[in-house]
Write a structure and sequence with these properties.
The chain is an all-beta fold. The chain has one domain. Strands 4-3-2-1-5 form a five-stranded antiparallel sheet, with no helix packed on it. β2 and β3 form a beta hairpin. The mean pLDDT is 94.
């Protein structure tokens, strides 16, 4: 999966070890860094969303693209 700005993603342990053990977050992408990384990985900037879909924090995360899941709007 290649994340794009505007998409809402589920980020869990499949995308990054920092979200292992049942930790997860819903994340709205605002940018994907063009910086080269390891194959299959990406730096994403965006907002963590609460249960109502409101942005509560801005984060930058390093994730494995194959572990990301798109959420329906």
């Amino acid at each position: 999966m290649s994340p794009r700005p505007g998409e809402v993603l589920l980020v869990n342990g499949q995308a990054s070890v920092q979200f292992a053990d049942g930790r997860r977050l819903v994340f709205r992408v605002i940018s994907v860094s063009p910086k080269p990384t390891y194959a299959g990985w990406a730096w994403l900037s965006g907002y963590v969303l609460d249960d109502a879909g409101r942005a509560i924090e801005r984060w930058e995360i390093f994730v494995r693209k194959d572990g990301l899941r798109r959420l329906q709007p």
